[in-house]
Amino acid sequence: MGRVLGGLRCIKYMLLAFNLLFWLAGSTVIAFGLWLRFGGIVKDLSSEGKTPEYFYMGLYVLVGAGALMMTVGFFGCCGAVRESQCLLGSFFTCLLVIFAAEVTTGVFAFIGKGMAIREVQTMYEDAYNGYLKDKMNKTLITFHSSFLCCGKESPDQVQSTCPKELLGHKKNCIDEIENVISAKLQLIGIVGIGIAGVTIFGMIFSMVLCCVIRNSRDVI
């Protein structure tokens, strides 16, 4: 009896600690997703009416999963404190949903990055051609300042739109877009897969605690 109660207490505290870390991880994921969505390059493109929707999809799933993580972390603590098998079962189910969402985000980021890169490159091509037709078109300037690049094969036709800090060091925008978007999506993929790995421990703890609670009640 004493061993069962001791094991119950140990697993309970481990699950409480996990949920605290899980809640903090959820807030970090939300902040990370919002930073990618509303900061830097993506913000600049959005301000010009350009929306790389395929790139946004992964961010939306990431932010949604982060919000769910914070909510689940709170209810997981309640389930552990109250020793409720019902709450712990619901906690396990929510973790399973988060696990699926994060794996989807990670797979999307690694496998779908080619499509996201092509989408942004197409947006650049449109801005480039638009500037050649209308010199008042400022979208190309936004691309060049955001990606710190200048033109395609030759920057001569769009020299006036190039960032001043690139004088003497011209970068092909098509290549630079691929490098930047690939790096950001790789980061999203790593975060998604990492969080998915963490949720596995939460599912294990919740199921073990459920079993210990059931066994302790059977003993009583």
From TrEMBL:
Q: Does the keyword Transcription apply?
A: no
Disulfide topology: 149-173, 150-162
Membrane-spanning ranges: 12-34, 54-75, 87-111, 187-213
InterPro entries, A to Z: Tetraspanin/Peripherin, Tetraspanin_animals, Tetraspanin_CS, Tetraspanin_EC2_sf
Q: Which UniProt keywords apply?
A: Disulfide bond, Glycoprotein, Membrane, Transmembrane, Transmembrane helix
- Determine the domain of life of the protein's source: Eukaryota
Q: Where in the cell is it found?
A: Membrane
Q: Name one GO biological process term.
A: axon development
Q: Which GO terms describe its cellular component?
A: myelin sheath; nucleoplasm; plasma membrane
Keyword Glycoprotein in record: yes
Primary subcellular site in the record, as a coarse category: membrane
Membrane-protein topology: Multi-pass membrane protein
Family according to the record: Belongs to the tetraspanin (TM4SF) family.
This chain's function reads: May play a role in signalling in oligodendrocytes in the early stages of their terminal differentiation into myelin-forming glia and may also function in stabilizing the mature sheath.
Name this polypeptide is given: Tetraspanin
The organism encoding this protein is Sarcophilus harrisii
Q: Which gene encodes it?
A: TSPAN2
